[in-house]
């Protein structure tokens, strides 16, 4: 388990992370979300002892990372997959990591097999594709067979096969009872991978809840209707108390009247419908609404 208490990091006058309180529990994948500059990497670096908190604390299995004798047995991390000496082979890279951390050499073959790099183990890392480098980074994280794993943007730049592989790996690590914390900007991927979410904005905790709860909290039940005479139908739905938005393509978005009622009204009034469907909120929509006030870097939307 990872536990942060009032975790704060200031750079000069600016707080990158402000009073974060959270627990990352075992047995599930916890997604770590937030806009650019929200403080995700800074938090991960503090968990791993690469940065010291200005105040507050963060512990791994109840202890600070700096106090661990052999940390790779407790927590493994993928932060920057390209941060590997390019002239080394995958095998040598993992072997030296194992040797420096008191991990038996036999684990190197095990993790190479686990990430599918056995066939290229003797090749120079400098010639690896991004996907192969990510796999090597993950092999390094798994080397000590730790109970806690941290992945910073693990699917960045990966092809669909690579993304599916990482998703499956994370789910199986969590199913084995491990603690898995993963940051990502890909909402559709997070919706498929994470059970629980921590959302931060401008260094502050915005949400700490299950994926289902976050989506349900934001949900506004809407119905999408396409009708031949959409202007007449829109008027009739407004008379029923519906809030109706007319999209440029003629689609009506209706809040406040359910799809069964709309279907019955359409039949009674002789409307020809081309579409009638319930729309549920996605994680992406819930995320946008949650973080809209804390986006630091925002470009103007093209007209
Ligand atoms: N070494 C540093 N010195 C000064 N400011 C820093 C340093 N590291 C991070 N920051 C600032 O702290 C804030 C949080 O940055 P951080 O990289 O943790 O965000 P992030 O959520 O990981 O962003 P991204 O999604 O873009 O990776 C940013 O405003 C960043 O500019």
UniProtKB/TrEMBL annotation:
Cited InterPro entries: AAA+_ATPase (IPR003593), ABC_transporter-like_ATP-bd (IPR003439), ABC_transporter-like_CS (IPR017871), P-loop_NTPase (IPR027417)
Keyword Nucleotide-binding annotated: yes
Family of this protein: Belongs to the ABC transporter superfamily.
UniProt key word ATP-binding: yes
Domain of life per record: Bacteria
The protein, known as: ATP-binding cassette domain-containing protein
Keywords: ATP-binding, Nucleotide-binding, Transport
Listed Pfam families: ABC_tran
Transmembrane segments: none
Limits of the ABC transporter domain: 2-227
Parts forming coiled coils: none
Matches recorded under SUPFAM superfamilies: P-loop containing nucleoside triphosphate hydrolases
GO molecular function, one term: ATP binding
Lineage of the organism: Bacteria, Bacillati, Actinomycetota, Actinomycetes, Streptosporangiales
């Amino acid at each position: 388990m990872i536990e942060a208490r009032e975790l704060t990091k200031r750079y000069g006058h600016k707080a990158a992370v402000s009073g974060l309180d959270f627990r990352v529990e075992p047995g599930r994948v916890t997604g770590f979300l937030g806009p650019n500059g929200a403080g995700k990497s800074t938090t991960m670096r503090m968990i791993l002892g690469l940065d010291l908190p200005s105040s507050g604390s963060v512990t791994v299995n109840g202890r600070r990372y700096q106090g661990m004798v052999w940390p790779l047995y407790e927590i493994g991390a993928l932060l920057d997959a390209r941060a590997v000496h390019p002239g080394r082979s995958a095998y040598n890279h993992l072997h030296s990591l194992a040797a420096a951390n008191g991990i038996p050499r036999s684990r190197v073959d095990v993790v190479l097999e686990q990430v599918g790099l056995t066939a290229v183990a003797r090749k120079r890392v400098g010639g690896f594709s991004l996907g192969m480098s990510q796999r090597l980074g993950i092999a390094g994280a798994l080397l000590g067979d730790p109970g806690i794993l941290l992945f910073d943007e693990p699917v960045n730049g990966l092809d669909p096969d690579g993304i599916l592989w990482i998703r499956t790996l994370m789910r199986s690590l969590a199913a084995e009872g491990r603690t898995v914390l993963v940051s990502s900007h890909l909402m559709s991927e997070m919706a498929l991978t994470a059970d629980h979410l921590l959302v931060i904005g401008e260094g502050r905790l915005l949400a700490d809840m299950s994926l289902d709860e976050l989506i349900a909290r934001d949900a506004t039940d809407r119905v999408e209707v396409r009708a031949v005479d959409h202007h007449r139908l829109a008027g009739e739905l407004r008379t029923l108390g519906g809030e109706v938005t007319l999209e440029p393509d003629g689609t009506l978005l209706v809040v406040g009247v359910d799809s069964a009622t709309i279907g019955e009204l359409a039949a009674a009034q002789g409307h020809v419908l081309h579409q009638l469907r319930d729309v549920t909120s996605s994680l992406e929509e819930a995320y946008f609404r949650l973080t809209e006030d804390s986006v630091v870097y925002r470009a103007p939307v093209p007209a």
